[in-house]
Amino acid sequence: NYIGGVPNSAKMWTAFSKGDFGPYFGTWAPFYNIHKMYAGLRDAWLYCGNEQAKNLFLKFCDWAVDITHDLSDGQMEKMLGNEHGGMNEVLADAYAITGEQKYLNCARRFSHKLLLVPMEEGKDCLDNMHANTQIPKVIGYQRIAELAHDVQYHNASEYFWEIVTRQRSLALGGNSRREHFPTKETCIDYINDIDGPESCNTYNMLKLTEDLNRVKPDGMYGDFYETAMFNHILSAQHPQHGGYVYFTSARPRHYRNYSAPNKAMWCCVGTGMENHGKYGQFVWTHDKGVKAEDDALYVNLFVASELNWKDRKMILRQQTAFPYAETSVIEVTKGKGTFILKVRKPSWCDNFTVTGVGFDINSYEEKGFVCIKRKWKKGDKLKISMPMHASIKPMVNVPQYVAIMYGPILLGMKTGTEDMRSLIADDSRFGQYAGGKKLPLNKAPILLPKHLNDIAKDLKPISGKPLHFKLGTHMENAIEGELQPFFEIHDSRYMMYWLALGENEYRNYMEKLAAEERESQELEARTVDKVSPGEQQPETDHRMEADATEHGNTEGVFFRDAKDGHFFSYLMQTKGESNLSLQLKFWGQDEWRTSEFDIYIDNQLLTSVNNSHRWRTTQFKTVDYAIPSEFVKGKEEVRVKFVAHKGKQVGQIYGVRLVKN
């Protein structure tokens, strides 16, 4: 009953069933990979009615039930520490299809308590978690909540949605940097780093939004969906060659690269194929009333579309050029019947109106919707007016950087095309990174308004070009260009967020930034390879091997540590360089720490380190250890290993780099 492409499956799953997770953790996210097979089989039946796919799906679910049957709850929790996609969701779907309790029970067992319990309790535990490992878990929580009427699972899902959309998302609706949720202190990474929100995350946040709205319809869900769909999803496919975007950088004057069609098969290519076939999925939704006349038809999005309401034998059409136009018309083109039409009232619109064309309406507002109950008939039309206005949206936890919005639409500005290496990515392991030069932040345009809100007031529309504007605010490092919808910007460096400062703030900031930028650029130029210890994806990318380690964070920066003879190691690229040093990053507050450990390069001792009570300061410290050329000469990669002395500890390593001398 097993269908999967995981290498060495027979050996790995046999050990797994007995509680031996060594091979499982040594393999690239096995359940994450086969979850795609589950979802594909389910969808082949759900959308296409393929009975063979349904049977294979249920037998595969039986395999999941059987292989985890003898694992204790503690073993399940340990196993779920590896990325596992939406296994709880597909098992809940198997329960929905069959009504068999074993699938729902297994779905609950696949629900990671490490995340579920804090979310149920209203505690934000997401700092430095791998973002798109968590979102599918929560989709599963909500699916279980819907099917089992489980209030706690629903509360966990709802709280997660609220903190991610309101406290952890950028203006385009996306979240995460380097694939992880940053801490408050490290949100500046959105500006400093090049790898901003991941497209897969937004794909999954929209799925969660649909699921929550299905249980408790609310206009706030449409508000988020609209923001994320127009600004992130729509922007994430190239309009000519069709390549998909993995990371959308928020760094001033950086750019995005695209998958090569049929070549670079990233996760964001798979979700991207779905994204751009789903624009009609959430435009209209339906909530069945106790009586037929109390049925509710929701208009969640302003998208030109036609609804064939088969149960009612009615057809409704929405005609609009939104967001390039500020009106929409809804018309009944076939049939008749009494029901409640509920039109979302956007939170960004101050003077939203819905009027009947040729007839008066009696309306009321409820949970973000304008609601109209009447006996509808062919030819009835409603006109929706939704005037848009400009506004600014400060970056979460970094308020000196602002995005410029027009209605729900994020505006960006093209800034140039210099050094856009790998614009069309190859199929290499790290091809999804837009690896061209990071242009200095202190040379990027800076807005100097008298008052922050003046930025929005000073926008000047460009005649004949809807949603295109000139910036009227005084600008340092000024560039010539025009603001336009971010989803229109491709094959270019761009501005998404702008540094906005008063005069004194500007002077002090620039001096500090210039010094930091020089130091950062010099370090990046020297860096051959790097790892962020304690962060899931970088450690996976560098094939971490470890024995009884610990991880945590200080000042929002994660570390990994080992004690009492235990170790951890990373496989790092040398790129043919032989004159290298190993640079390690430590936390200087070490009064309590007995840090003594050995460093090995491919099992050759590089040095023994004693950092016990060395710095006694609340600052990060970096130390370079020169590597003899014979350790690396002729090698494309080496394994760097840290081994704690007996009774001692490595002492929390926050960064590992191979740097040129």
Automatic annotation (TrEMBL):
Hydrolase is among the record's keywords: yes
Keyword Signal: no
Domain DUF4986 per the UniProt entry, residue ranges: 416-498
GO molecular function (one): hydrolase activity
Domain Glycoside hydrolase GH146 substrate-binding stretches: 522-659
Segment forming the signal sequence: none
Alphabetized UniProt keyword annotations: Hydrolase
Region of interest: Disordered: 520-545
Chain ranges of the Non-reducing end beta-L-arabinofuranosidase-like GH127 middle domain: 297-388
Compositionally biased spans, kind Basic and acidic residues: 520-529
Stretches assigned to coiled coil: none
Stored InterPro entries: Beta-AFase-like_GH127_cat, Beta-AFase-like_GH127_middle, DUF4986, GH146_SB_dom
Domain Non-reducing end beta-L-arabinofuranosidase-like GH127 catalytic positions: 26-280
One Pfam family of this chain: Glyco_hydro127M
PANTHER family: PROLINE-TRNA LIGASE (DUF1680)
Protein name: Glycoside hydrolase family 127 protein
Record organism: Segatella copri
